[in-house]
Specification:
This protein has eight helices and 16 strands. It is of the alpha+beta class and 367 residues long. The protein folds into four domains: 90 residues, Ubiquitin-like (UB roll), CATH 3.10.20.740; 104 residues, Alpha-Beta Plaits (2-Layer Sandwich), CATH 3.30.70; 58 residues, N-terminal domain of TfIIb (Single Sheet); 68 residues, no CATH class.
């Protein structure tokens, strides 16, 4: 891939052709604040927080025959402006900072100032940008939205009073899951994401994969099971592998006091690249269910009693050997599970054919 070289804050930066100014700044370790940008989503320049001053070179010949290069500057969104040879970028000019501050102040003019009780406090992009720009209170008073957070779906809440119209949820639904259950509705001050008829998600093509929740920079979309359960700084992240199927999706569990509060995407995961399904993201309540078995059970005198793994596995091995010796291997049937990994299913069929000496092995392809 050909490279282009530009200058950012006086530093030469080389990136692949097709990169944006934001890509180049990130590669150079230069931070540009953003709200609508997400590495997994196509950029659309919706929020304008990432505006930078871009100078485009133009060369003219003077009367004495010498060449002179001048730069025409303008504010451009770094997330969509292409990196090009010889352009000059300044990321924190007074004008750029003034525009960013104005955008945040406008957003806060129609945003609940409930950071003390908001579940996203400490993990909110709007809060972080307001802190960086030292925006302490909205300067513009006027009409505010009062949407009802009443979606009856069991998985996540939609509180569009906290929406900043970044369209991340719409892009995730379209480019990640390909469902397009939601789009941007209305125009101007009334703009918001929603289904085609502005109804409930259960009446739309939504599959409740939760990717819109994952990319939401505020608490406009938030898991219902996590509401009021923990502050961000109380949560311990733990990476694990989803146990629902054999794909091997990696998940980042958010743990408080040994209990799962929420499931988040692991964007570095090789199998799923951060993507999840409804089971992996929201189906974790069984982990703490009081009826969940925590140890093997063996029936003795007509009743199940707890046993160690050595005792249970030893009993199974003895019973299988007894059946095989008395009736032959074909008297045994083995059923594998779609929840096992490919490696586990391979080992089970190997055990069936090489040890039990039967081909009576099948697989349940349904969860």
């Amino acid at each position: 891939m050909p490279l282009v070289e530009l200058t950012i804050n006086g530093r030469p930066v080389r990136v692949e052709e097709g990169s944006t100014v934001l890509d180049a700044a990130t590669a150079a370790g230069i931070k540009i604040p953003t709200l609508c940008h997400h590495p997994a989503l196509p950029d659309i320049g919706a929020c304008r927080i990432c505006v930078v001053e871009v100078g485009i070179p133009a060369t003219r010949m003077n009367a004495d025959g010498t060449a002179e290069t001048t730069y025409t500057t303008s504010l451009q969104p770094a997330c969509t402006y292409p990196a090009a040879n010889d352009i000059r970028v300044e990321t924190h000019t007074a004008e750029a900072i003034a525009v960013r501050r104005f955008v945040v102040e406008m957003l806060l003019s129609d945003h609940p100032l409930d950071c003390m009780t908001c579940d996203a406090a400490g993990n909110c992009a709007l809060q972080d940008v307001a802190y960086e720009l030292e925006v302490k209170e909205p300067l513009y008073a006027g009409e505010r939205h009062h949407y009802a957070a009443d979606d009856p779906n069991p998985f996540f809440e939609r509180d569009y009073n906290k929406c900043i119209v970044c369209q991340a949820c719409v892009r995730a639904c379209s480019s990640i899951n390909g469902v397009e259950a939601i789009s941007m509705l209305n125009r101007g001050f009334q703009t918001k994401p929603g289904t085609a008829d502005d109804g409930y998600l259960e009446d739309s093509p939504c599959e409740f994969c939760g990717m819109c929740v994952e990319v939401c920079p505020t608490a406009a979309l938030y898991p219902k099971a996590a509401k009021g359960q923990a502050r961000t700084w109380e949560i311990e992240p733990v990476t694990t592998t989803c146990g629902y199927c054999g794909v091997g999706c990696q998940l980042d569990l958010r743990i408080k006091d040994g209990r799962i509060i929420q499931v988040a995407s692991n964007w570095d995961a090789p199998a799923n690249h951060g993507w999840t399904c409804v089971k992996g993201r929201f189906g974790f309540d069984f982990v703490h269910h009081p009826d969940r078995l925590k140890s093997p059970l063996i029936k003795k005198d007509g009743r199940f009693v707890e046993a160690s793994w050595d005792e249970a596995l030893g009993l199974v091995a003895d019973k299988l050997a007894e059946v095989k010796n008395r009736h032959g291997g074909d008297a045994i049937g083995v059923l594998s599970s779609a929840k096992c990994t490919n490696e586990e299913n391979y080992l089970l069929q190997k055990l069936t054919r090489a040890v039990l000496e039967t081909n009576n092995v099948d697989h349940c392809a349904r969860l």
